[in-house]
Amino acid sequence: MTTATAEKKPQFRVIDAKTKTERLYLHPGQVKVWDSEKRIIAMICGSQGGKTVLGPAWLEREIRRRGPGDYLAVTSSYPLLSKKMLPEFRYLFEDVYHYGTFNKLDKIFIF
What we know:
- This protein is α+β, with helices and mostly antiparallel strands.
- It has one domain.
- The protein is 39% helix and 11% strand.
- The chain has helices at residues 28-35, 51-66, 78-96; strands spanning 13-15, 22-24, 101-103, 108-110.
- Strand 3 and strand 4 form a beta hairpin.
- Helix 2 packs across helix 3.
- The longest helix is centred in the last third of the chain and has 19 residues, at 78-96.
- The protein starts with 12 loop residues before the first strand and ends with a strand.
């Protein structure tokens, strides 16, 4: 009997608990988005392309780089927002960086 072992994928993000700094491991498509200096950037790819996990990290960096203003985090459907994007966004912005809280009633993030 042989046992097949699945190759373990590296984590997308590793966060240092003491310094609260994150280390991202991006695939080439994510690197293009991360490195772009364009005013409007769209990451368009199929399912499991890394959009949901890259989005909040990229947005956090843009807020730090560009300062106060209006920022959008958008998705194609409410189920995708509630099950995937919002938990990832809240994890990074609330739990890791402690930037504020999500108001469930108004559906806005308050810094």
